[in-house]
Amino acid sequence: MKWFIVFHLFGVIFWVGGLLIVSSILAAAAREGGAAQAAMLGIARRLFNSACNAGAALTIVFGLLIIVSEPEVMRHGWLHVKLALVAALIVLHLFMLRRSRLVGSGPGAPSPREFLVIHGLVSLALLAILVMAIMRPF
Questions:
Q1: Which of 21, 85, 128, 132 has a CA-to-CA distance to 78 between 20 and 30 Å?
Q2: What is the CB neighbour count within 10 angstroms for residue 89?
Q3: Domains held by the chain: number
């Protein structure tokens, strides 16, 4: 069980850390053009495909293994809120992936502000998840 928690937290660090870094890079890339933008987008895509996707997979797989190995935890309301917040992170992950493909595409391209808002929402979701997991308020 403790190993499941270790790998779950390792995945969270990679996933959320990756989302925060990539959203910052994408905000900068949305301000640029030409070769600078192309280089930033390449870096963002590589990080997204490695850190974000792998971190999300580890987080989800080991989170499910924790629940399967200790199913009584599903009786707690705080876990349901935590799982809803994880679902919100998944939506932000997919939304950022979709919008990242449109950077520099002209009309309808995402603005730097859009990626900064995503950055803030990811940060807030992480904070709320930590409150649920550590404080277990209900």
A1: 21
A2: 20
A3: 1
